[in-house]
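ingest -> validate -> predict -> emit
validate: passed (alphabet ok, no gaps, 533 aa)
predict: started
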Amino acid sequence: MSAANGASGAAVPPRPVALRPRLSVVVATYNRVDLIQRLLGQFARQTLPASDFEVVVVDDGSREPAAPHLEKLTLPFSLRVETQANAGAAAARHRGVIAARGEVVLITDDDMQVAEDFLAKHLARHPRGSRNVVIGSIRPDPAISNMPLFERWYAWLNNRIAASMSGPKRRAHGWQLFTGNVSFRREDYVAAGGFDKSLGQSEDIELGLRLEKAGCRFEFCTEAYVLHGSDHTSFEKWLKRANRYGVFDIRVAAKHPDVPQVSPWRYLFEMNPLARPLLAAVVVAPEATRPVTHVVMGWARLADKVGLQKAAFAGTSVSYVMEYLRGARTEAGSLSKAARHVARFAFTSGKPGQVLKLAKALKDDAVQVASSEYGQPGVKAVAAMVLTSDGYRVLALQRLREAARGLGIPLGNHALRVAQTAVLGVEIGKDVELGSGVYFVHSLGTVVGGDAKVGNRVRFYGNNTVGTAKDDGYPVIEDDVWVGAGARILGPITVGARSRIGANAVVLQDIPPDSVAVGIPARVIPRKDVDGE
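emit:
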């Protein structure tokens, strides 16, 4: 008898119970009893010891309840099955996470397949004390060539998303979270408030935004992959899903207006210029343009038949976004309301928005840097600091670089980076995120590399390095940290808010908030003066 099959009529041995597993796997299922059994069988063959994990399955009101089938299985790990009336994927996954006993929770879907080291790969990215959110990759089922064009397009899209997160100088973000393959600390999930159960789609992205804003570090792990072989074959249902994403992304954008990456209106500015008139027409006349969506998809299918895959995927993308924007337009209400949404996006995130963002950033930096030097500075003090401070000049060039990136001028960003290094002696990587009011007290010799993230009002005292130790990632420095002269902060670590890094210290591990790090390698001692020095 295999690990995934019970013997008909035979007594099933008592299943082990993991009271304090290191990892809890949560899977929501709906009308897929065969697929969830296949997945449980693959969990039975994991290299991670069965005593180290449990699986929580939540049946979201399947027509044929899953519990009677799953209770017959002989499995080496602890399995619990929760059953609820149909309430949607977000509610089912939330129930599973709340029921989980593990410190780390991994969520995947019932139609996925996993390799034998899948759980071990995820758990390895969660060292004790870390606050990581690990997004694994989704690879297509080997039988993908037999799937409809729109499902093959999903696989192509997943590959593009994975590429955008891969590489030592790239970092995943909250808006890229998907529940097909993700793990995080249960404590962080609960503190963030869990899934928003009012969202019928995009609840994973919205959770990711809150986790990132709460200080979690996002990582992409190519090796922790799942195979996805969808059983969706209806084009009309595919369009309906696209429409629902548009509806609910309007609500997500309303909750997070500071994150342009989740605004549905971004496609009006980001898609191929040839497609933009079609997309704009959908916003103006959503119902009248519905037949055009089918025409575009018909053209994509024709391109697919003659082997023009790139053109087929491009046409599928346009069809999807047309229906997606049709849903967004419906949720926005009237054309005038949709137009106001589009205008607001353009002036906050488009080219006009980049100019306004630059002006605001320069002003905020000036006030915060002057405040750190003069307490309550007047206009003259701020003006003097702007004219005389090399530390502020570093920030000003950085904001100009950010604006150049936002405006799509990579050569401008590169030229400003060269000037920043040559004239002011500070080297800052092109993917570094600097918070407001970061102050380079003595700028010479400081390097902030890769995709390091530096919070607000951080002070560097000169000849500092913020980089990687083994090419395995870059640090996150939280707000109000002071970095002493000659200090080195290396690796994918987090320096907690209001900490102090001693001169010449070499920091290779996480530093808790309100701490002092001194020595080589740095040791941690608590601050005695958390109210200031």
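Residues 1-10 have pLDDT under 50 and may be disordered.
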